[in-house]
Design brief:
Two copies of one chain form a homodimer. With 386 residues, chain A is of the alpha/beta class. Chain A has 14 helices and eight strands. The first copy, chain A, has one domain (94-370): 3-Layer(aba) Sandwich (Rossmann fold), CATH 3.40.50.10210. In chain A, the strands form two sheets. The first copy, chain A, has a six-stranded parallel beta sheet, with helices on both faces. Chain A has a two-stranded antiparallel sheet with strand order 1-2. The termini of chain A are far apart.
């Protein structure tokens, strides 16, 4: 860390001059580099040509079923095919990336669980006994856990990436969750991870999260980016009671009053009221879109990350699949504003990547329909009159 | 076939004297035997003791996740566990039974496909190129096709059970789809199949159907058993246009006027306006419940079969899982009247067992959560305050 100097440093972010605060000289340089990488990655994201959608649809319409009778399973297949530039091969390598981070806001009593559960659950993931491990095994996926900001030092081990931005965010009722630079860094961790895995070869990825207290920053992000009332986007998380819910809503209100996040700058929102794992997820989604890898978004926390990514580059929408809608009340708002429909609605609210896992197996089913089904011609089946 | 004699034979069915018509002497005897078998099977179906539900729930509440945070995946796991008497083992042997039959009503122009597509699709199933084959392979299930009444003679082959009730039903606008005895026989084919597979050992089964024109009898059955307007339960099937939909509704109206099915006797309804494959599915579901084997109900046609089974014995509800809701408008009515919620809502309307296949993989996921997850104690994770 360079010594603190009294300069104010402005960085151009999304066309706006952005004050870096607190303003270390070194940080300004890192921030500029970090922003440059995000911008370059966003620039690599391309709209998928319409003709690919048409060609994929044409193939699906030849399959020996009444036209479009597999409904959204066909839509999934079509979207997967176009992301792959119609070079569709079986879905083999599947990875769920579960980002873990701690949250200073837990001290406000916004969660039914104590903060140390984040680190305990990371260990549970690494032992293979958590929900996401079970469901990932079920669908033949690997789980990679990223310690992006847990308040604990884990031993290096198989399945764990240690890339800390910090040891837990700041309490957002007292100040920002993190500096702008840390927000940029958390996003770049996701991007770097996806670039690395893109090179190694991965067919599809899923997002996941672990962080006691993280529905609070997710609701805060959603409130700012959607412009909706805090009450409309705030739910019970892991299961707080009525009193806890009231406290959570007032905590978010205080956090927004104190931090005044700029809704036109998603990274400012992430930094002021977000979380490290949410930034990591946003980065993973950006990196997946840049590398043309389909990315399956898990539950409410992942959707907060997805919303940041989508606000930075709306084209990302063509590369994401939303796996499920949870009982967390803000989740519906997310679907309303992005105009999407989840694959599943099973009243789940666990996170970790559990919804992404179930989503991936449905997408794989759709891809198999695309690849393995006989056409009317192959099967000698008479076509219908429509 | 015995020669026709002029007797009228009454059989006591569900407390009512039932006229067998047309009345062959031999048929009366077969009918009595057939009814006896159905009644005996229905008697074997037991309500699952409440304490099993409580014990299964207790186990799920110990898992290292916020209580009930896997939502309906936990409910699935609980229901699977209680059906198995809490002796839960991994879901290994999975079979989808696809019943195929033809329908005389096709000559009224109620389908977008010609009748011969039923037989063509059976061959497609046996070659492994149809939608249900692809999705069954995806979930590791076997597909067994039952020719219960296709208007074609297939060569005996692997994966095909030939057990014909007839070569297609009668045109329901001109008379009954089949005799009461044939209705009983079709149900018993499903029961026998399930008894046989129950002995061989199967962990879970799914239903499926193939029969050009079979949304028409399914809607007719639903109209009678739900008491709802024909318009409310009739959709576009494989994809007929507005004109075709009007014709289909008026066809069902004529069929109900002519046949006057007795809504208090589900077998009468099946016989007068149903189909062989619908009876087979009803029988399979009855047999599954009697053998305590979880059965996953596919789409709209399977739900018509399920409704017949449920009206014969409401306890069956504890043994069935409804896989998905289709775009067929009557499907919603089915869920309304049985008070259930489908696992999936993907705008599918193919049948064959495709929805059942996707449902089975979600159930298997739930069972794995039940079996493989670490408890709070195992994982050393602190429990929440609720």
């Amino acid at each position: 860390m360079l010594p603190l100097l009294g300069f104010r440093i402005y960085i151009n972010v999304g066309g706006m001059d952005k004050l870096v605060c607190p303003c270390f000289v070194g940080e300004g340089v890192f921030l500029e580099e970090g922003m440059e990488k995000i911008k370059e990655t966003l620039k690599r994201i391309e709209s998928i040509p319409r003709r690919l959608y048409v060609d994929a649809r044409r193939h699906l319409d030849r399959l020996s079923i009444p036209r479009r009778s597999l409904g959204r399973l066909e839509d999934i297949a079509q979207r997967y095919a176009v992301i792959k530039g119609l070079k569709v091969s079986p879905v083999k390598k599947k990875v769920i990336f579960t980002f873990a981070g701690d949250h200073g806001v837990v001290e406000e009593g916004v969660s039914a669980f104590p903060r140390e559960v984040t680190q305990q659950m990371v260990i549970n993931f690494l032992c293979g006994g958590a929900g996401v491990n079970v469901l990932a095994r079920h669908i033949g996926a690997e789980v990679v856990v990223i310690d992006i900001g847990v308040g604990y030092d884990f031993e290096p081990q198989q399945g764990l990436v240690i890339d800390k931005v910090g040891y837990g965010t700041g309490n957002i009722v007292r100040g920002p969750a993190m500096t702008y630079e840390e927000g940029v860094k958390s996003i770049n961790i996701g991007i770097d991870l996806m670039n690395k895995w893109g090179e190694k070869g991965v067919d599809i990825v899923g997002t996941g999260d672990m962080g006691i207290g993280n529905t609070t920053p997710s609701s805060a992000i959603l409130a700012v980016l959607s412009g909706r009332e805090i009450e409309d986007v705030t739910g019970r998380g892991t299961g707080i009671d009525d009193e806890g819910l009231k406290r959570k809503i007032s905590t978010i209100r205080k956090a927004l009053d104190i931090n005044k996040p700029n809704r036109d700058d998603p990274i400012d929102v992430l930094s002021k009221v977000g979380g490290y794992e949410i930034g990591g997820i946003a980065g993973l989604i950006i990196g997946a879109a840049a590398n043309k890898i389909p990315v399956v978004v898990d539950g409410f926390i992942s959707c907060a990350g997805a919303l940041i990514a989508l606000r930075l580059e709306p084209k990302i929408k063509e590369y994401i699949f939303t796996s499920h809608i949870s009982v967390e009340s803000g989740h519906k708002v997310f679907f309303d504003i992005i105009g999407d429909k989840p694959l599943l609605d099973l009243d789940m609210r666990l996170g970790e990547g559990t919804g992404a896992a179930l989503g991936i197996t449905l997408i794989e089913a759709g891809v198999k329909i695309f690849l393995e089904m006989a056409t009317f011609e192959d099967a000698g089946v008479t076509e219908g009159r429509y």
